[in-house]
Amino acid sequence: MATRSTIMDTNSFRAEHADGLDADTRKLTDKRSKVLGESYRLFYRKPVHLVRGEGQYLWDAAGNKYLDVYNNVASIGHCHPAVIEAVNQQMKMLNTHTRYLHERILDYSEELLATTPDAIDRAMYMCTGSEANDLAIRVARAFSGGTGIIVSQEAYHGTSDLTSGASPALGTGQPLAPTTRLVPPPDHYRVNAPDLGEWFANEIQKQIDDMKAHGIKFAGFLADSIFSSDGVLPNPPGFLQKAVDVVHANGGIFIADEVQPGFARTGDAFWGFARHGVVPDVVTTGKPMGNGIPVSGLLAKSDVLAAFSDEIPYFNTFGGNPVAMAAAQAVLKVIKEEGLQEHSRVVGAKLQAELAKLMARHEAIGDVRGAGLFIGFELVSDRSSKTPDKALALDLIEKLRDHHVLTSVAGPYGNVLKLRPPLAFQESDIDWLVGALDKSLTELGR
């Protein structure tokens, strides 16, 4: 069976595209292949050579300005001066690991835990979301005494051995762990169920029952609460509660992977899980936490974490270092002082409304859905049958690139544009994005 990957290969440069490149770009892609090997992927049939960023904008080597509608790494905006200053000042003083006392990690932990439900009262630090989710799986197994992990069918949770074994979005070339089970995504657009929450909870119970039938004890359910790799599935708010109840009733824990929906992204709440009124047992986060500085975290209920932490020492050389904590503190401060959660809610709603208006002009748009500045833009070949149109989606992102708008695709069919700009995205940018989508679809005859 041929391998496939939605998250890595759907929007990517391939060798057959090389002949269409200019000499400078071809030289870089050839050198990249030679020195980095074949596992890495570039976006776009004609890769973008970026050299500078500021806020929601990026510039390429030729000086062209782009609107970034994809990047949650630089969550509060590329090269934010507050993060640059915080990192610079701390780097001039000290950067070392967590086996010495330092105030920053303690101060930041108190600030970050203050954003979570009271029951979540412990923090641990790593460098990447993969590491955070890896540790979360270990905690789930220590707490439950089981090994079985449930994720959604197109989930992406990391690249370590444990997390890649629970990340079907990496494709069939990456085998899932025998203790991993998949549930279909809670797709309100495609699932015909009177109660999506009840339907999803039943799907989780089926997989727990399957584990039991195969002698596997259930440990936990790991989910990104906006189901971004599954195609951006945020609604209706609250549908996750019944699923979490089923998880707890079967002795497992709920791990909320907040790398994508966290840190004010959805507008409705600081954390994505809060839109659903649930209290996770463990919360993981990464990319948006440091605005480009590698830092990630695991937040947990103390009684859940104790099953692991009371028995096993944990150390991460760079996790929680003073420079990373300085960046994380700056990000949290900017989100609060610049009112970015409310900004995300208001501007995101206006953007979603304008995107929805395009449906009257373009039959190929099947659905527009989202929360705050995280929107799924689904393309279909037929609205009535909701037939996914992956080819159009891939052609569309190339056209958008020509109009200097950068984004990518998601979902099991590769037909959903994932519109997730830095939170610096402004109301004044809406015309650029919506106009580029309108022009590109028209140019494609759709």
Automatic annotation (TrEMBL):
<dbReference type="GO" id="GO:0008483">
    <property type="term" value="F:transaminase activity"/>
</dbReference>
<keyword id="KW-0663">Pyridoxal phosphate</keyword>
<keyword id="KW-0808">Transferase</keyword>
<dbReference type="Pfam" id="PF00202">
    <property type="entry name" value="Aminotran_3"/>
</dbReference>
<dbReference type="InterPro" id="IPR015421">
    <property type="entry name" value="PyrdxlP-dep_Trfase_major"/>
</dbReference>
<dbReference type="InterPro" id="IPR049704">
    <property type="entry name" value="Aminotrans_3_PPA_site"/>
</dbReference>
<dbReference type="InterPro" id="IPR005814">
    <property type="entry name" value="Aminotrans_3"/>
</dbReference>
<protein>
    <submittedName>
        <fullName>Aspartate aminotransferase family protein</fullName>
    </submittedName>
</protein>
<keyword id="KW-0032">Aminotransferase</keyword>
<dbReference type="InterPro" id="IPR015424">
    <property type="entry name" value="PyrdxlP-dep_Trfase"/>
</dbReference>
<dbReference type="GO" id="GO:0030170">
    <property type="term" value="F:pyridoxal phosphate binding"/>
</dbReference>
<comment type="similarity">
    <text>Belongs to the class-III pyridoxal-phosphate-dependent aminotransferase family.</text>
</comment>
<dbReference type="InterPro" id="IPR015422">
    <property type="entry name" value="PyrdxlP-dep_Trfase_small"/>
</dbReference>
